[in-house]
Amino acid sequence: MRITVLGSGTSTGVPEYKCGCSVCLDAADVSSKNYRTRPSVHVELDGKHLQFDVGPNFIDQVNHNRIEWIDAVIYTHCHADHVSGTNDLVMPSRKQQMDMPIYGPEQTIQILERNFNYMFSKDTFKGGGVAHLLPHVVNRNFQLHNFEIIPIPVEHGTVDTFGYRINNFGYVPDVKHMPDSSLQLLQGIDLLIIDALSFNPNHPTHLGVQQAINIANHLQPEQAYFTHIMHQLDHRCFHQQCKDQQINLPENVYLAYDGQVIYI
Question: Domains of the chain: which residue ranges?
Fold first, then answer.
């Protein structure tokens, strides 16, 4: 399995608008690991290509990382940093000459059908730059191209939100609380990519670094990476930042970065 981290940032991206902090100044250089677009991953498995979320940076992300095929799109939830690039599915659909299957929580599919209604009927616009989407509501495990995808229900504000497990990979980019039943679904994974917004443990909708470490310590994957990270966290000195916060960072836990490729 080949996982490409297309985006590792929070909903604002990094650098933040009109921010002069050290991380944002460093992130002005797009080659810096601190430069972060909205969270998304692309998974290649057995010759198939699955796209997880399509935020506002989607088309630039796939172009920059030379993603040349998408067999299906899987949404975690309906927030704009995860769905607002949906219109740009027109190009993969056109180049691949296919209708695009999409999967996600019922609430997300309903919002997509409302906001991008023209993409759900072939009769809406003929001859225009429009992709045709084939919606599938996720409410249980499902089979896609001969492998099983397991939705992981999590608490993230007031919207229905899933992480997902494919084989030994768990992806949970937006979460504040993970019920025991969901933790059980992630037992035995080798790779975890999980939300760790900042050092603040009291954010109402996202895990802090220590909370994410606690989950990683519980699940014991071979590797864990933090995503959906804001400008407070600095690739250049993250270990020292953790020490300053009196946080014990395990040797197998890292910050993810845009363009990172991980194999399991």
Answer: 2-263
